[in-house]
Write a structure and sequence with these properties.
It holds the Pfam family DC_STAMP. It is found in: Membrane. The protein is mostly helical and 437 residues long. Helix content is 73%, strand content 7%. The protein is built from 12 helices and 2 strands.
């Protein structure tokens, strides 16, 4: 492995064997990265497979030429890998989490809301139809009661009104109400579909922009680090490297490294400074806020499913409500009531007819003919995947410091002569500081 890395990090291969070894190394790296790039564009960013294939092939060929022919490009590419463990890598993973939640959770919430609206629409339709049918009951009762009044009037034959029936203005045709309800339901459905499409398109475009910007920034950050490493001897130069230890031993000044152990750290050690710990804690708090927002969205998914499932079950259990209309009518006639009242004699009334009937109707709020889509339960794998990605994100926060150290080590292995100059500069700096003290 050390020999392979030596061939990979050399500016120029020493012989033909190293040249072929370097080409095979670059080819293997290109094939792996090209496959990951295709899968990322097709599965995550949702590009068409034609465009994903063309972009992956073009990117792979360009990457192969750059790695094989340009030595600094190999260094930059090698530093991109640990740079994924820094802030830009967290952005990529966070955008992936957002895409997973929006694509899988938001349509589920909207589907369950549609189910709730379908239940409401079914109840409104059946209840309105049942109420309209109840007016026919009133019409029947009024005509039968009117017939009874007419019979009493005919039997007396003193005063006869033109018609003894009650007149009701009934809505015979209920299609207008159904049509309005259908149009309202269709409008609500179109509005929800438009919102769903807008959210998906917005998140998809935003995710593509974030992903593209993050990939460009990864390359820029690695290039910026290499540029500062090669032009500024003070940049990221506070590590006790093997070259610095060897230099101090050769000049018999090993005590300089022992006395400066508080200010210097070993690149392979696990020690974190207080500033690095505080920065990790702040970033962890910000990541926790993003996690809470996603948990709220997933909790809304569970809540919408619970409400939709309860609404469907309760609607199926709705019982019919009985409605009873009772009419009790007694008709009597008095004999000369005015004269008997003047003579203060007891009045006598003769019964003509008794009318007593009951009419029954049932109000129906739900029907088996209603088209209600079943509620969609939340996908448990979404919570599992998001939880796993956030575990990786929290780990990346604390690994970011070590990723920077690895970038420095990669740059040092590609430019060993410059690493020696940096070690000499740090040694002289420690010597001056020791003399001043």
């Amino acid at each position: 492995a050390a020999d392979l890395w030596s061939v990979y990090s050399k500016p120029v291969p020493a012989n033909g064997r190293e040249l072929w070894t370097l080409f095979l190394q670059c080819s293997c790296v290109t094939v792996v990265i090209g496959g990951l790039f295709y899968n990322w564009m097709f599965a995550s960013l949702e590009y068409s497979w034609h465009l994903s294939t063309a972009m992956a092939i073009s990117f792979s060929l360009l990457l192969l030429l750059s790695l094989f022919l340009v030595h600094p490009a190999r260094c930059v590419f090698s530093m991109i890998m640990p740079t994924l463990g820094t802030k830009q890598g967290r952005k990529l993973l966070l955008s992936t989490c957002i895409m997973i939640v929006v694509v899988n959770v938001t349509p589920n919430i909207i589907s369950n809301i549609k189910t709730i609206l379908q239940v409401i629409k079914c109840i409104c339709k059946n209840s309105s139809e049942s109420l309209l049918n109840s007016t026919a009951l009133l019409e029947t009762a009024s005509w039968e009661f009117g017939d009874a009044i007419q019979e009493n009037v005919h039997s007396v034959n003193i005063y006869r009104p033109m018609n003894g029936h009650f007149q009701f203005s009934l809505l015979k045709n209920s299609s207008l109400i159904y049509q309005q309800m259908h149009l309202a339901g269709e409008k609500i459905g179109r509005d929800f579909l438009a919102v769903e499409v807008l959210v998906k398109d917005t998140v998809r475009v935003g995710n593509k922009l974030v992903a593209g910007f993050s990939m460009l920034y990864l390359s820029f950050e690695s290039t910026w680090y290499l540029k500062n490493y090669l032009t500024n001897l003070r940049f990221d130069n506070f590590y006790i490297t093997k070259k610095l230890e060897r230099l101090a031993v050769d000049r018999k000044a090993a005590h300089l490294l022992v006395g400066s152990s508080k200010n210097l750290i070993r690149p392979t050690g696990l020690k974190l400074s207080r500033e690095e710990v505080m920065l990790c804690l702040v970033q962890a708090m910000l990541l926790t806020v993003a996690l809470m927002l996603m948990l709220v969205v997933m909790a809304m998914d569970h809540f919408a499913f619970s409400v939709a499932d309860t609404a469907v079950k309760k609607a199926a259990q709705f019982s019919t409500v009985p409605v009873a209309l009772s009419i009790k009518y007694n008709a009597k006639i008095g004999i000369l009531p005015f004269l008997l009242k003047l003579l203060q004699l007891p009045q006598e009334e003769l019964p003509l007819q008794n009318f007593e009937r009951s009419y029954h109707h049932y109000l129906i709020f739900s029907s088996a003919h209603c088209r209600i889509s079943p509620p969609t339960p939340p996908n448990p794998s979404v919570l599992l995947v998001v939880g796993l990605l956030f575990c990786i994100l929290y780990a990346i926060i604390f690994l970011e410091t070590y990723a920077h150290r690895l970038c420095r080590k990669i740059a040092g292995s590609f430019f060993e002569s410059w690493e020696e100059k940096r070690a000499l500069y740090l040694y002289k700096k420690l010597s001056r500081k020791h003399k001043e003290e």
